[in-house]
Design goal:
Helix content is 37%, strand content 18%. The protein is α/β, with parallel strands linked by helices and 211 residues long. Strands 7-6-5-4-3-2-1-8 form an eight-stranded parallel sheet. α3 (71-86) packs parallel to α4. The longest helix is centred in the middle third of the chain and has 16 residues, at 71-86. It is globular and about 40 Å long.
């Protein structure tokens, strides 16, 4: 089981790795779902994680709130992607939607292009896409070389135990074309049961391991 642990800032990375985290997702402002850290934090985090033989995914999100971005915000995200690339970050997590909750294909195409050389994760913006449009979103993301989709399978206010049936549907549709990474409400206590139920080999969470 690959355990991706979401952390805020650099502070908890040494503890998370010592406790057995396999991959780190680096954020600022987890209270709003995560935003981009500073260049300094990103640099030190990448250095430490790589020295310890693990991989680093960094959140690329200029603010909290929705995932509908204007041109200036997209420019900021592209600049942050180039910084992440220059610092040797392994993967980046982002998502851009239109006002009606569909993938912003133009924005995503530009952001994916700016991510060359790094793995790309479409984050929980996915859960804001209407459920009947999610299969098409999976297909589009897979066709555009996105590696993983981080999803709770529903609103974060819904316990993950209640979203497991929808997660199973998404995993079945994704099949071998893209990885569905379940997250949100997964802890060290329920992780094994959830992984077994879903048949997945990767999980994401802030409390996936105890440290």
């Amino acid at each position: 089981m690959l355990r991706e642990v979401a952390v805020e800032n650099y502070t908890h990375i040494p503890q998370a790795l010592a406790a057995g985290a396999d991959r780190i997702e680096l954020n600022d402002n987890l209270a709003v779902g995560g935003t981009t850290v500073s260049k300094g934090v990103m640099a030190e985090s990448a250095k430490y994680v790589h020295e310890h033989g693990r991989s680093l995914v960094t959140m690329i999100r200029p603010r909290g709130g929705n995932f509908v971005y204007n041109d200036t915000e997209l420019k900021i995200m592209e600049a942050d992607l180039f910084e992440a690339q220059a610092l040797g970050v392994d993967g980046v997590a982002f998502g851009a939607l239109t006002a009606d909750g569909l993938i912003d294909e133009d924005a995503m195409t530009s952001l994916i292009a700016a991510s060359a050389g790094m793995s790309v994760v479409f984050h929980m913006a996915f859960d804001a896409i209407p459920e009947d449009q999610q299969p098409a979103a999976i297909d589009w993301l897979a066709a555009h070389h996105v590696d993983r989709i981080l999803t709770h399978g529903g609103p974060l206010t819904t316990p993950i135990e209640s979203t497991l049936p929808h997660l199973q549907t998404l995993i079945a549709h994704a099949a071998d074309q893209i990885t569905i990474l379940p997250g949100g409400g997964i802890t060290s206590q329920n992780a094994t049961a959830i992984a077994d139920k879903l048949g997945v080999k990767e999980l994401h969470g802030t409390k996936l391991i105890d440290f």
